[in-house]
């Protein structure tokens, strides 16, 4: 390895498993030596990393669809960066890639674990957001899991966040006559309607969610994209038309709950209205990625799909960015510029 290459790398580790809402003391920073590369490996200088709600679940020592983060070890997650050293013909020095070893300045990984970014003229950060896992989650959840059709009225909770903001726009682009979003501030409500083209939106702090959704959807809803759970799910079930569909993407209202969260009190309406609710993990839909990239890329090139990013500078500030994201401080995708 050349003397010009870095010899040390800063990384963020999980210091303690959070009880309830995470705190800065649950994280620690460490500096490690950058190891030499083995055959087939590359060294990536990370430029951006993602902080996402699902990471909160991985901080618990509980069985899930992905292993929990290990105490005293660096966290991981989506990142994009530049290959600065390579022992792989597939990924030469200078190429930009996306991969799963965020939360660190430099990442050493097998070339098969990094995906070259297309030379599309877009900022590299979009491949963590609207053209990355975020946009793909919106696409699969809306079109495949919820079986959206052009006559469907759609309700999206957490609609100003990374996934929700894309879901609402995709529904309008595919012909929805009415898209409704919930958000956590008056400014976010304005953003949804005036900037993103939602037909209606409300601040869930302003009163009963059932009442606000009923006012926004007097003819009911056909699709609910659930990022929040709790009272939002309950309200959506109440507002559902017959044969309505729910895509269960997340339940951020319950992520920091220490006891058993309460469930909706109107579940019998699943029977009377013949409703369908399906949870999903977007990694199960890899075969749909080419379709997603083709359609979403076209919308971006035509400037018909808007994306927003909230960027925090400095790897040392990644824990606070994560905490802020859980508390709704972001509009669109929350990213850390490393």
Q: What structural keywords apply?
A:
alpha/beta; 6-stranded parallel β-sheet; 338 residues
What is the secondary structure topology, with strand pairs?
Layout: E1 8-14, E2 27-33, E3 41-50, H1 54-58, E4 79-86, E5 96-99, E6 106-110, E7 115-116, H2 133-145, E8 153-156, H3 162-173, E9 178-183, H4 186-195, E10 200-203, H5 209-216, E11 221-226, H6 230-239, E12 240-248, H7 269-272, E13 276-279, H8 289-301, E14 309-313, H9 318-326, E15 333-337
Parallel strand pairs: 8-9, 8-11, 9-10, 11-12, 12-13, 14-15
Antiparallel strand pairs: 1-2, 3-4, 3-6, 3-15, 4-5, 5-7
Helix pairs in contact: 2-3, 2-8, 5-6
What does this structure look like?
By secondary structure, the chain is an alpha/beta fold. It contains nine helices and 15 strands. The chain has helices at 54-58, 133-145, 162-173, 186-195, 209-216, 230-239, 269-272, 289-301, 318-326, and strands at residues 8-14, 27-33, 41-50, 79-86, 96-99, 106-110, 115-116, 153-156, 178-183, 200-203, 221-226, 240-248, 276-279, 309-313, 333-337. Strands 3, 4, 5, 6, 7, 14 and 15 form a seven-stranded mixed beta sheet that branches. The longest helix has 13 residues, at 133-145. The chain is globular and about 65 Å long. The two termini are 22 Å apart. The relative contact order is 0.15. The mean pLDDT is 95.
């Amino acid at each position: 390895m050349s003397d010009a290459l870095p010899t040390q790398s800063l990384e963020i580790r999980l210091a303690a498993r959070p009880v309830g809402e995470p705190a800065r003391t649950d994280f620690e920073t460490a500096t490690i030596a950058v190891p030499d590369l083995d055959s087939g490996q590359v060294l990536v200088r990370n430029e951006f990393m993602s902080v996402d709600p699902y990471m909160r679940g991985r901080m618990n020592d509980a069985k899930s669809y992905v292993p929990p983060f290990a105490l005293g070890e660096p966290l991981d997650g989506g990142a994009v960066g530049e290959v600065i050293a390579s022992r792989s013909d597939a990924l030469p020095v200078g190429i930009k890639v996306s991969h799963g070893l965020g939360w660190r300045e430099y990442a050493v990984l097998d070339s098969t674990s990094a995906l070259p970014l297309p030379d599309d003229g877009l900022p590299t950060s979009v491949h963590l957001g609207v053209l990355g896992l975020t946009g793909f989650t919106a696409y699969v959840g809306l079109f495949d899991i919820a079986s959206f059709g052009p006559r469907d009225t759609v309700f999206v909770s957490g609609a100003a966040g990374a996934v929700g903001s894309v879901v609402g726009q995709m529904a309008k682009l595919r012909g929805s006559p009415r898209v409704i979003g919930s958000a956590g501030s008056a400014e976010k409500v304005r953003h949804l309607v005036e900037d993103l083209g939602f037909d209606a939106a409300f601040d869930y702090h302003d009163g009963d969610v059932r009442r606000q959704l009923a006012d926004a959807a007097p003819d009911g809803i056909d699709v609910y994209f659930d990022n929040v759970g709790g009272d939002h799910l309950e309200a959506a079930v109440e507002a559902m038309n017959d044969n309505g569909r729910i895509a269960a993407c997340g339940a951020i209202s319950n992520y920091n709950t220490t006891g058993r969260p309460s469930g909706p009190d109107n579940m019998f309406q699943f029977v009377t209205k013949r409703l369908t609710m399906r949870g999903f993990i977007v990694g199960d839909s890899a075969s749909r990625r080419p379709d997603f990239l083709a359609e979403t890329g076209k919308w971006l090139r035509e400037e018909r799909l808007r994306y927003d990013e909230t960027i925090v500078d400095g790897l040392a500030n990644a824990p606070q960015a994560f905490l802020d994201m859980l508390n709704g401080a972001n509009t669109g995708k929350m990213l850390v510029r490393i």
